[in-house]
Amino acid sequence: MVGKVNFLLGIHNHQPVGNFEHVLEDAYQRAYKPFFEVFEKFDLKLTVHFTGWLLEWLKERHPEYLDRLKALVEAGRLEIATGGFYEPIIPVIPPGDRIDQIKLLTKFVEDNLNCSPRGMWLAERIWEPQIAKELAQAGVEYVVVDDNHFHWAGLHDDELVGYYVTEEEGHTLKIFPISKTLRYLIPFEPPERALEHLKQFVDSSGYKMQVMFDDGEKFGLWPGTYEHVYKKGWLKEFFGVLEATEWIEVKTFSEYIDSHPPAGRVYIPISSYVEMTEWALPSRAREKFENLLEDLKNRGEMEKYGMFLKGGIWRSFLAKYTEANLMHKKMLYVGKKIEECENEQKKREARKYYFMGQANDAYWHGVFGGLYLPHLREAIFSNLIKAETLLDGESSKVINLDVDCDGSDEIVVETPYYSFYLDPDYGGRIIELDYRTRYVNILNNLTRRYEPYHRKLREAVTAEELTRSGTTKTIHDVILAREEGLEKLLAYDWYERYAMIDHFLGWDTTLDKFERCEYSEQGDFVNQPYRVLKCSEKEIVLKRDGHVWVDSNWVPISLEKRLSLKDRGFRVTYIIGNGWTYPVELWFSVENNVSLLAPNAPDRYYTADGRKVGTMSSRGTVKARVFGVTDEYRKVSFKVVTTSPVEHWYFPVYTVSYSEAGFEKVYQCSSISTHFRIALEPGEFETLEFFVRLDEI
Amino acid sequence: MVGKVNFLLGIHNHQPVGNFEHVLEDAYQRAYKPFFEVFEKFDLKLTVHFTGWLLEWLKERHPEYLDRLKALVEAGRLEIATGGFYEPIIPVIPPGDRIDQIKLLTKFVEDNLNCSPRGMWLAERIWEPQIAKELAQAGVEYVVVDDNHFHWAGLHDDELVGYYVTEEEGHTLKIFPISKTLRYLIPFEPPERALEHLKQFVDSSGYKMQVMFDDGEKFGLWPGTYEHVYKKGWLKEFFGVLEATEWIEVKTFSEYIDSHPPAGRVYIPISSYVEMTEWALPSRAREKFENLLEDLKNRGEMEKYGMFLKGGIWRSFLAKYTEANLMHKKMLYVGKKIEECENEQKKREARKYYFMGQANDAYWHGVFGGLYLPHLREAIFSNLIKAETLLDGESSKVINLDVDCDGSDEIVVETPYYSFYLDPDYGGRIIELDYRTRYVNILNNLTRRYEPYHRKLREAVTAEELTRSGTTKTIHDVILAREEGLEKLLAYDWYERYAMIDHFLGWDTTLDKFERCEYSEQGDFVNQPYRVLKCSEKEIVLKRDGHVWVDSNWVPISLEKRLSLKDRGFRVTYIIGNGWTYPVELWFSVENNVSLLAPNAPDRYYTADGRKVGTMSSRGTVKARVFGVTDEYRKVSFKVVTTSPVEHWYFPVYTVSYSEAGFEKVYQCSSISTHFRIALEPGEFETLEFFVRLDEI
To answer: pLDDT tens across B133-156, in order?
Structure first.
């Protein structure tokens, strides 16, 4: 039979805002550059997407690369796709921002690559049907998603041989399905395998098409791929075969659209690639889901029923990780401040940082580090704080506002120098504490949580072992570990690691037990609601009538927590009352977790009464009048000051998470707890005081 | 153990816009009224929702009923929930309309029932996460959905013992899960079964709750339930047991919220009850999905894996049924006209009809008739046309507009008297034809499609048989048929039943074959694209260079189709050309399907040259100069007028669909085809002409 199949090939190149310079340069040298060096030599067509932040970097560091792209565009061989400039998850940013982020990249492409993008790469292919409207409004004609998205709409592979049209509020958008088969074959299997797949779609009408559009980092940056794709010549061979095969027409997406009508109308549910929906599930459901997928694979029924198996939606990361939620809600909060700002110049400047604060990578966690990487979260916070500080200027306020959107108000304190969010409903803790002049949220912490992959820690192998085995398996298949003994670090927190946490400790508590979160908490204060007695510009007073276990008695204890706001910190006063008919002895401890990003950097250390105690990886107990941390890198310090020396405990908090390099330990924050032992007669109250000093240095 | 469980009971009462008066009265007498007659006698609390259209009807016909509700509200026993006034599917109407429809019902409740609703009933529990914003903006504090929605978010039943908080763009909303177990027990099983279920959630904290919120029609209107619920006293017994059981606290939703914090944060994917997601799937996928569910049930794994099994989303109905899509896009089109209207009074008036045109029932099809019921579709179209006519006034225009959002433009013709949409991309057909002064779309047709339940037609039993068996099974379990022999009516159309369809028939075509859509189509014109050669205020010219099979030869035939617009219809001119080197004989036929709602009503009939030929259920062939239909009920006629008598075929189009009363045949439209036999020499053209007369009568 004479016939042909259309093959649309696309590459998506992305680096997260806040990524290290050397990582970008490495990606350029090993993937972005060599890919095009090979591509140029063949008579083929390609569609490519670069996220804006990366494209800006390329323009600055490798302007010759943009010339190279421009030449291909001019030769009609290269189509450029747009997207959100800083690669936000489109459905979870406000509709207006969707349009503006896309227009920003479109403009950059127009200005620098001499072409006007018609299509869009959708970050992580996180689709929600309502975004069709803003995509269309931003001038996007088509978007490329997974075949999985279409399966979930009830379509079969044999129907996925063209693009479809979807709509929101009357705005239409064309959607192309990426073939998962091709995504797994390229570049991991011999080129012939991709050809065999394409061959099935050859027909005389010339209508049918297949799409491959995937991460450019697969071509050189993923473990083992540089060797495979370039040194062993996989890419050259693949392009050669495409060029030589008469029944394959390699087209850009726009070319295909201009010569073929849509295959039909479609409404796609909230979707992404299956793995993403697996990661987004709460852990208990995720384990069940993985079991189901495995069961069906074993029964050979995956093919048949896969289209009805759906994990979670991206938004669930916000319910699963408080840290992701806080970044997201901070972003929305800053967004509202921008909206309300009447100074157009400030507004414009703030928006740039605000948009950078929407970059998706830090907001979630799958097979890459993401949320588990403090420097990525830091990039989000510092950009958002930069935007906020610009907007707020010298204004001060203390307001009640549900800033984390949990259904009840927090107390939001904003001064020209610092700001913090106090959460009465969860232990009267502080969940964010910003040094506004340094753009630092010192509570950029992460709680240690169970992750279903922790079960696999034992099977993990180190990279050296993998290299020796000479495989080109993908990182979806192999379990790597960056170092040995990680399982010993696994510990899970029963409360969230923020600041101003009110503990009553059992007498057998040790630093070691406390560090592992396996001590006995005697009170019901840590994660329980406090009443707000006062909330003014000068002072905040919270109170909880709670209980503490004393010798098997559930003793009524009242705790009043006063924060008096000062220029460079706040005075804390606790009034603890014994509501029992017997005397009690209590071990009260206030815990502050602070994040200093690097555990072993010499410019970040503990200090006790002016002495350096050690870097953030150190642990121990110390008696001091002034104890805390100093960060010479970001130029801030956090100190607890008492009138006389008291005992402080300190230790680093590490998580064990999975990334493209395998299991790794990551320093998340440091716990500093300040200890008080008190004895109270029946009806007696004791007052404890200290000052939390927040200094620029 | 001393303890308790909170039980929140809700009832949702709804009637579709356009439903028959006698159906409403019956529902009132058999369900809405007796339910409260029983409820009043017990010391219990309840939450109730009435859709606005029903509440208006109740106010007019049974004002004493509203007094009864008011008294219960005043006694603190009844909470009223709001919703979209005309019960639209919230996620598929524009965001502004979501707010306005809800505010409309809230206002009505405030004005007539002396209370301000805090909660909302979500039509068909069609949830999409972004609607949280408009719900919150409309003043809704909480919404009630299925436990299924939460399962799909990865939550387990043991976590569904409180309400959750969700959020969109910083707007928070509380969400309650309805227990499916309770929904299936009440009122079908003995009250003790519901008690057994509730008992599991009793605990000393008093925190846990369970929700039952379901259709009020289950209490008296569903087959067999009047007897069961009232005559046999099920409801009295149930309420008695609730009242007498000390460990059950029957609360309203607001009472529960006011005394209990949320159980957590949640982001719910697009969801509805499982059955809805089954119905919404394309038929091929739906069959597979049903098989999977059955397999898992047989393996006893449904419980374990059910949370990951997801069918389609409601929006898919719009892709599945062109008819639903056309209503939906007409609605959006009229909505835009309202937005653009500058006359506030017209705008206000038009909005009322426009909102009625958003009533959900006609837009989809599950276990009730819905889309398959012409009078419900008619209600949608007539309201939308009313709104549109009000807005357009005396203006005329012919524009290119993608009115059905398929990605390419239709030709939209609007005159003060009629309007129509011509679709060049699909056979140059007409997909809507409105008599604007009568608010009638004569093309309110429905195509005969395969529905997976057609396989079950053989197992169906009649209602008499069911009654004899004395069961109280739900309509989810039993297959009923309203009459025998329905399987003989099953026929499937390969093209969609609209107007101005250009056929080339095989010589063996008979009326019977044509009626069953099992004839041989020789041309490639019916559903293929036409070029637009001219599009002006006076004339539209389309052309297709297509093919017709002539004795196993695929002969090039050109067809030009001119529509000259007149005041009361349009003149149609066909120019058919033979592009072959041999002479050909062709059987050309133009088909118009028109909908007259009732097959046997004496006021709707065919006429041929002034004679009545028969009602819409009649079929046959006739030779006439003027042939068509007259509708004395809606006061319109549709006639094809030729210069000399030609042959016309006519027959009724019935579908076989499933509703709460079982399988039934429904008259959808009538096919009128006008036949021409032509002979063409090589290169020769023939011109055919007729007039389509659209009269008010």
So the answer is: 999 999 999 999 999 999 999 999
Give pTM, 2 decimals: 0.95
Distance of CA B221 to the CA centre of its chain: 20
Subunit contact A329:B267, Cβ cutoff 8 A: no
Unique residue bearing structure tokens 């000393």? B204
Q: Give yes or no for residue A472 having a pLDDT over 70.
A: no
Decide: B160 and B182 in contact? Cβ < 8 Å: no
Interchain CB distance below 8 Å, B269 and A269 = yes
Instruction: Give the CA distances from residue B618 to residues A205, B519, B641, in Å, rounded to whole numbers and listed in that order.
Output: 42, 20, 21
Which pLDDT does position A202 carry in this prediction? 97
Six token digits for residue B253: 């939703």
Q: Specify the CATH number for B5-271; select among 3.20.110.20, 3.40.50.261, 3.40.50.2300, 3.40.50.11190.
A: 3.20.110.20
Among A245-249, A354-358, A456-460, B263-267, where is mean pLDDT lowest? A456-460
Chain B from 347 to 386: CB within 8 A of any A CB = none
pLDDT (0 to 100) of residue A146: 96
Q: Do B170 and A405 lie within an 8 Å CB cutoff?
A: yes
Q: Which part of chain B is CATH 3.20.110.20?
A: 5-271
Q: Please state the rounded mean pLDDT for residues B199-209.
A: 95
Which residues of A are annotated as catalytic? 124, 215
Nearest alpha carbon to residue A279 among A15, A17, A659:
A659
Q: What pLDDT sits at residue A579?
A: 97
> Is residue A259 within 8 angstroms of chain B, CB to CB?
no
User: Do B315 and A128 make contact, defined as CB atoms within 8 angstroms?
Assistant: no
Rounded (10°) angle between helices B322-340 and B374-392: 20
Give A104's contacts (C-beta < 8 A, 6+ positions apart). Answer: A52, A85, A355
Instruction: At B65, list the tokens.
Output: 């009923």
- What does pLDDT average to over chain A? 95
Q: Which residues of B touch A169 (CB under 8 A)?
A: 94, 332
d(CA A496, CA A429): 10
Answer for the pair B519, B513: CB distance below 8 angstroms, yes or no.
Answer: yes
**Structure confidence at residue A473 as a pLDDT band (50, 70, 90):** low
Per the CB < 8 A criterion, the answer to whether B398 and B348 are in contact is: no
- Per-residue pLDDT tens for A132-185? 999 999 999 999 999 999 999 999 999 999 999 999 999 999 999 999 999 999
**How many angstroms separate the CA atoms of A260 and A257, rounded?**
5
Q: What is the DSSP letter of A374?
A: H
Tokens 């009047």 belong to which residue? Answer: B226
Interatomic CA distance for residues A646 and A644, integer angstroms: 6
- Percent residues over pLDDT 90 in chain B: 89
Minimal C-alpha gap between A172 and chain B (Å):
6
- Tokens coding A30: 């090993």
Considering only CB atoms, A285 lies closest to which of B130, B307, B529, namely B307
The answer to whether A284 contacts B313, with C-beta atoms less than 8 Å apart, is no
With beta carbons under 8 A apart, name residues in chain B contacting A529: 261
In chain A, which residues fall in CATH 2.70.98.10? 394-697
Residue range A394-697, CATH number: 2.70.98.10
- Is pLDDT above 60 for B475? no
Residue B267 has its nearest CB partner, among A265, A310, A316, at A316
**Token representation of residue B347:** 């705008």
Whether B302 has its CB under 8 Å from any CB of chain A: the answer is: no
More confident residue, A485 or A68: A68
Closest-CA residue of chain A to B312: A153
Q: Which of A392-406, A667-681, B18-32, B473-487 has the lowest mean pLDDT?
A: B473-487
Q: Chain B contact for A286, CB < 8 A?
A: yes
Strand partners, B522: none
Contact criterion met (CB < 8 Å) for A311 and B154: yes
List active site positions of B: 124, 215
